[in-house]
Amino acid sequence: MTFVTPNASKIVILGDSGVGKTSLALRFTHNEFHDLELSTVGAKCFTKSVHVADKDVHFSIWDTAGQERFQSLAPIYYRNSRAAIIVYDITQKKSFHEAERWVDEMKRHGDEDLVIALIGNKSDLNEYREVKMKVAQEYALKNNLIFLETSAKTGEHVEDLFMKIAEMLPSVHAKIPENLDHNFGIVSISKLEEKEKRKEKKNCC
Amino acid sequence: MNFEDFLKIHRYFDFYNFIKKDKSQTLYQKIRRGIVILLHQRKKEDPRENDNKIIEFIDKITQETVEKHILKWNKQQKREKTIKQKTNEFREYFERYILRKMYTRTFRLNPKEDEEKDKALRAFFRKLSFIKPKHLEIPEDLVKQKGAHKARKKLQEINNAKNPHDKIERICESCNQINKILDRANMNGADSFFPFFIYQVLHANPLNIHSNIEYILRFKNSNLLSMTQAGYYFTNFSSAVRFLENLTAQQVLMSQEEFENHMNQIKSEENEPKYLFENVPLEKLNIRDLRDILLEYKKIALENEELKGILQKKQLKQK
Question: Which CDD domains does the record match to this protein (chain A) (predicted)?
Answer without folding.
Answer: Rab5_related
